[in-house]
Design goal:
The protein contains 18 helices and two strands. By secondary structure, the protein is mainly alpha-helical. Among the domains are: 67 residues, no CATH class; 94 residues, no CATH class. It has a two-stranded antiparallel sheet with strand order 1-2. The chain is flat. The two termini are 46 Å apart.
Amino acid sequence: MKKIFYKIFKKRNVIDEFINIFKVFFSALIGFVLSLLLNNIYAFFIAFALLILSAIILSFLFSKRKNMFDILKLLKEEQMQRKWIEIIRLGYPLSRPLWLSARYNLRIEIGEYIKEAASSLPEQNIKIGNETLPVSKIYVSVLIDDLGWTNYVIEQTDVAISNIKVGILMAEEKNYIDLEIKGYRHLCGIYSKKNDDDFLAAREKLDDLISKLPPDTKKSMQAGIIFSKAEDCLNKKEYDDAIKYALEARKLFYDLDDRERVVKTYHTLASCYKEKERGNYSKAETEILEGIELSQQYSRTESLIKNTILLLDIEYNIISNISYFTYDQDEVISRRIENYYRDALNACAAANNVSLEKKLRLSYKNINRLRKNKLKRGTKK
């Protein structure tokens, strides 16, 4: 029935509400319907038809009420009325929470609204929460982060680079050195992953900008730069240097009381230990499990999912190297990974992150296939 209604209405929330309301109605009226059934079969069908019709009507009404606070709907309404400042006030504060919760597509959609709003306004200061920011700075920030780095994360690399470069040019023109640094840091991360020839020029420019910072702001910026060096070394398979930089960055993040950025160092270190100490995954697993715990504590959805994928990959390697694989061993591994996998899968669904969900499901599928192939009670593989 759920599939039929999905084909008709094409709205998942409507279908879910229909099913829930249908269950409630059915539970309440089942006694009444059964009593009618004993006396008149036609009464049963009439009651059943009315039940479905009522559930459909109520589900649509409920769905409409739920969507009253749909942020994209609100932004669209403000856009149609050209209320540009309201769009910025509504959307801009969501940038960081959406990033931490890995809701990348929504972050980009809202970013497009903010970009249009900021480009439609003359230069002025806008109060957002406890901050007062120039419109141009909001515009540059959205280009570099929301429409730049976020597009890179969802594998729209060309779009990301284009937006970041435009943002950097504007940041340089307006003397927004913090955003210029962030832009070059993002470019370094992208170029490093691609082994692009432009990496060295971007890194040189980044180091030059950092050297011009006053001491009180340099430490915070420096922590991010050091961590990006760790990621660069990891991409180049220079694991000893990557470990050194990641540990240094972690210490700086702790000194800055920036727990949210501390969390991401665990996946980097675990990746290094996994590759550097093949066959002995204890250090990598320690980093992963601590990283998962902190990801849950600080709601770092992306870190939770990526650490879980890494854990599944390590378990895959461990099983591959087992000569004798028994049902007892399989049960231990199953208990070990199932809860982590389910938590990560739920996180993907909550964030609507299709890209990470595909990677997670693939890792889970691979390890289950391997378990089935090797699973013979007490016999040699």
